[in-house]
Design a protein that fits this description.
The complex is a heterodimer. Helix content of chain A is 38%, strand content 29%. Chain A is of the alpha/beta class. Classes of the chains: A alpha/beta, B mainly alpha.
Chain lengths: 330, 234
């Protein structure tokens, strides 16, 4: 077990930033911490990295408690904080060296470590430049390089791709995936494709609580509602779209058929079925037997985006309604 | 120890990489030089006493300028999170930053040796008060800088940090100036707390352990308070 969070609660004054959450991260996993802004992602990461102390509960990293062995835990972790703060008056090499030394890399191996990281993160061209002059993409790479300079077993990254352009995002994702082979990675984001692209497991948090925890596929199937099919057909002369629709509705597992319009004999339908039934074969056979030309057929499943939306929006409403209820009761 | 050294070197480097360090040094030596030459020929004595007594007043403005950025700037840019999540003790960060500021002050003091050379041309200089004066200045400077670090941990804003540090230093500076208004037993305690009071002893060339203990404990206590304030975030 790489990270073990048990009944963790963090209060800021009266506000519960994290409310009694528990989860485990196995070594070698890439975990995506997903949630709307203010859900408690950053606070959780700050507790794991020893920047904040838990109000209640415990956090263990590789079997060591962050409360009792804070410095040992910090040595095991590479951390990229939110907004990637860097010393803008240092140049790239200086900043990497500083980071390496403070992380306990011995003076003899510092130069080698720095050179290695410059290579891995592609910083060769800018290594003598001041960080203040670097583009955002390069700054992000410097942030990653300084987090990994001491070859930590656990890498924690708070929104590693925020503010980058699409090409840079792809680069950073590839880097993360590459790293994930040897390290335990926890990254937070509110961008969904990021999780699907890089993570093996997702933890969705909302208002300080975990609302879902599982692999991306698991979450998609668990929260799957009805499946939708989009069909485009050319009707033969003489048939009307009404008869077509009636035929479609006769397929048993179809719950609704909606016509999306008709143009020069081409009809579009949106068909909903109950969960877990595949009607693509039936649609094809129906079209063959009735002599309609099937122009397009595609199925749409619940996306992670829908899962996220459902969980975070619904749970917040639930919390609000229970709060009003308790307020009424008192 | 190693961590303190790493932080010290980094701080010194960023001080000298910024314009502030040079501005402070130049303005300091200009002001000190002005006050030095102004009174030099009036006094007709080959001594640095006049300027030594004045420098602590100058430091009241220069020490906050040296320390105002130390913690507040890191808080503002968020790099404090980077620093505090490294396997480093909070105290090592404070001590490293303090030593860097102190060393910088020592370097800023070097040009004043020109005053000494000038005076040596003009007459025989008594070594005791000169050595005592420089030792005293270093101790006063160290104490003020340590108090300045405390001021810098209190806020994210450099200007606010400057003003807070100035106020804290001013209070310690005024202790021995207000004793005449206080009843006897209280007066001696308050006088003992004054930064300038101990300086005037050392500047005469009398190095008393009571004065050394005072400065050492003021520095130690300030750094402790700074560390506690840094941990307050948790």
């Amino acid at each position: 077990m790489s990270i073990n969070v048990t009944n963790l609660t963090k209060l800021y004054g009266d506000k519960r930033a994290i409310d009694n959450i528990s989860f485990e991260v196995h070594s070698g996993e890439i975990i995506g911490f997903l949630g709307p802004n203010g859900a408690g992602k950053t606070t959780t990461m700050r507790v794991i990295t020893g920047y904040l102390l838990p109000t209640q509960g415990s956090v263990e990293v590789l079997g060591k408690s962050v409360q009792d062995h804070s410095r040992e835990v910090r040595r095991l972790i590479g951390y990229l904080p939110e907004n990637n703060p860097l010393y803008s008056d240092m140049n790239v090499l200086e900043s990497l060296e500083f980071s390496a030394l403070l992380n306990g890399v011995s003076r003899g191996t510092v130069t080698r470590c720095v050179r290695e990281m410059v290579g891995v993160c592609g910083l060769g061209e800018v290594k003598h430049m001041d960080i203040g002059q670097l583009s955002k993409g390069y700054r992000q790479r410097v942030g990653l390089a300084q987090a990994m300079i001491h070859d930590p077993k656990v890498l924690i990254m708070d929104e590693p791709t925020s503010g980058l352009d699409p090409n840079q995002i792809v680069e950073i994702r590839n880097l993360i995936r590459q790293l994930g082979r040897e390290k335990t990675v926890v990254l937070s984001t509110h961008i969904l494709p990021e999780v699907q692209a890089s993570c093996s497991r997702v933890i969705i948090v909302s208002k300080g609580k975990i609302v879902a925890d599982g692999s991306t596929n698991e979450l998609q199937s668990r929260f799957q509602g009805n499946e939708q099919y989009f069909v485009e057909m050319e009707k033969p002369d003489g048939d009307s779209s009404g008869t077509l629709r009636a035929h479609l509705q006769s397929i048993p597992s179809i719950s609704s058929v909606e016509s999306l319009g008709e143009l020069e004999g081409v009809v579009k339908f949106r068909i909903e079925t109950t969960r877990g039934v595949d009607i693509r074969k039936q649609l094809f056979q129906l079209s063959v037997s009735k002599k309609w030309t099937l122009l397009e057929l595609h199925r749409e499943q619940t996306s992670l985006e829908d899962v996220f939306h459902e969980l975070t929006v619904d749970s917040s409403q639930r919390i609000e309604s229970s709060a009003t209820r308790s307020a009424e009761a008192s | 120890m190693d961590n303190i050294k790493i932080i010290l070197l980094k701080e010194l480097r960023s001080l000298f990489n910024s314009a502030i360090a040079y501005v402070i040094m130049v303005v300091f030596i200009l002001l000190a030089g002005y006050f030095f030459t102004n009174t030099l020929f009036l006094q007709n004595v080959a001594s640095l006493r006049g300027i030594f007594e004045l420098i602590p007043f100058l430091l009241l403005f220069f020490a906050p300028a040296i320390t105002m950025r130390t913690i507040s700037e890191e808080r503002k840019t968020g790099t404090i999170e980077l620093l505090l999540t490294k396997p480093v003790r909070d105290g090592e960060i404070i001590v490293g930053k303090f030593l860097a500021a102190w060393l910088f002050f020592g370097i800023a003091l070097l040009p004043t040796l020109a005053f000494l050379v000038t005076v040596m041309f003009l007459g025989r200089v008594d070594a005791g008060p000169v050595i005592g004066g420089y030792l005293g200045l270093l101790l006063v400077g160290g104490s003020l800088l340590a108090l300045g670090i405390v001021g810098s941990t209190l806020t994210e804003n450099q200007v606010v940090a400057f003003i807070l540090s100035f106020l804290i230093m001013f209070i310690f500076f005024m202790f021995d100036k207000v004793v005449i208004f206080l009843p006897g037993p209280l007066a001696s305690i308050v006088e003992y707390l004054g930064i300038d009071y101990h300086f005037s002893n050392i500047a005469r060339g009398v190095v008393d352990s009571r004065d050394l203990i005072y400065y050492a404990s003021l520095i130690g206590f300030s750094l402790l308070v700074g560390t506690v304030l840094l941990e307050r975030r948790k």
